[in-house]
Design goal:
InterPro entries: DUF374. The chain has a single domain (2-183), classed as Glycerol-3-phosphate (1)-acyltransferase (3-Layer(aba) Sandwich). It is an alpha/beta fold. The chain is globular. The strands form two sheets. A six-stranded mixed sheet has the order 3-2-4-1-5-8, sandwiched between helices. Strands 6-7 form a two-stranded antiparallel ribbon. It has helices at 2-6, 23-29, 43-54, 68-80, 102-110, 158-183, and strands spanning 12-14, 35-39, 58-61, 84-87, 114-121, 124-126, 134-136, 142-146.
Amino acid sequence: MRALIEAGQPFLLAFWHGRGVMVAQAYRRVGGRRIKILVSEHRDGELIAATMAHWGYGAVRGSTRRGAVRGARGMLRAAHAGYDLAISPDGPRGPREVLQEGVIELARISGLPIVPVTYSARWAKRFASWDGFLLPLPGARGVILWGEPLRIPRDADTDTLIALQQALEAEMIALRQRADAMVGRTEPTGGRS
């Protein structure tokens, strides 16, 4: 991550919706400064956008369900202006840890590499929400993991795009599982956690 930032190479951060709360601080700790985060147009998006603004980050409003075209255009404008981008590809309503195609298409069109990121903490509150939102408790120690950058060729055919989408989803799940294992966090069985 630091190498990308030091080289001035903008990128697209991808994180699961339930593991997004620590991403802004993780980004700042590795030297990131200019980022636009795709935030839903739902009411909860207002809170997220206000929180990001408090930390000095910008938001682009839109989602796969509402404002998709406006959101995509806003993200592309930000990419062309040199911003890093951030998106939770299973949001805003899931299903949990199922990667939607929007992140792949955004990376293909913008030319930005996708960098998966996740975090975990053993001492954390896991909410009973659709995304299993994980909120580290005050004073908790945790881990933040960054995945390898993935580039999506502009001329990729449909089969290649589907394969890359599946590969990124699998990598993001494995990254989250590895972070959980590193802190000794166990999740309930029976589906994605």
